């Protein structure tokens, strides 16, 4: 575990959601800043919510993106492709759940299945392909991360 995560300790742990049945579950409350002039969640806010879900999935398997970047010569993940269905809308003060599940792992990329839910209702469903890159070039996803994600799926 990184020094930064150790400093956060128990205080920050509840902010990261939890693993359940091979998926990461992240509760998020909708704030005014997430909405548009119609008081509904702005479509791009769902993208931010899902980005948080992907980041917290990595934290849940004890892999911080900042550590990957620092310890592996600048390794980062970039979104390569996204297929998204907007099925319903949320409003201010709703409590949403971002569910992120590894779907497919390839050499330099992985596809994650994500849902934004309000209770049992699925509001947004997406398949997101991310690629591992270093210096602007695709690189193989580290074996430690492969193992960590496979162990939880």
Question: What does this protein look like?
Answer:
By secondary structure, the chain is α+β, with helices and mostly antiparallel strands. The chain has a single domain, classed as Hotdog Thioesterase (Thiol Ester Dehydrase, Chain A), CATH 3.10.129. Helix content is 29%, strand content 38%. The protein is built from four helices and seven strands, in the order αββααβββββα. Strands 1, 2, 3, 4, 5, 6 and 7 form a seven-stranded antiparallel beta sheet that branches. Strand 4 and strand 5 form a beta hairpin. The N terminus is likely disordered. One of its GO terms (molecular function) is fatty acyl-CoA hydrolase activity. Pfam families: 4HBT. InterPro entries: 4-hydroxybenzoyl-CoA_TE (IPR050563), HotDog_dom_sf (IPR029069), Thioestr_dom (IPR006683), Tol-Pal_acyl-CoA_thioesterase (IPR014166), YbgC/YbaW (IPR006684). This is Tol-pal system-associated acyl-CoA thioesterase. Keywords: Hydrolase.
């Amino acid at each position: 575990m990184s020094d930064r995560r150790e400093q956060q300790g128990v205080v920050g742990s509840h902010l990261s959601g939890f693993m359940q049945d091979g998926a990461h579950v992240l509760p998020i409350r909708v704030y005014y800043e997430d909405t548009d002039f119609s008081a509904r969640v702005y479509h791009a806010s769902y993208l931010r919510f899902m980005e948080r879900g992907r980041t917290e999935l990595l934290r849940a398997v004890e892999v911080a993106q900042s550590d990957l970047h620092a310890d592996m010569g600048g390794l980062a993940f970039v979104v390569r492709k996204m297929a998204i269905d907007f099925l319903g809308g949320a409003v201010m003060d709703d409590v949403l759940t971002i569910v992120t599940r590894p779907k497919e792992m390839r050499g330099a990329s992985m596809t994650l299945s994500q849902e934004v839910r309000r209770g049992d209702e699925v509001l947004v469903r997406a398949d997101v392909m991310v690629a591992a890159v270093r210096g602007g070039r695709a690189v193989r996803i580290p074996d430690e991360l492969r193992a960590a994600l496979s162990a939880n799926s």
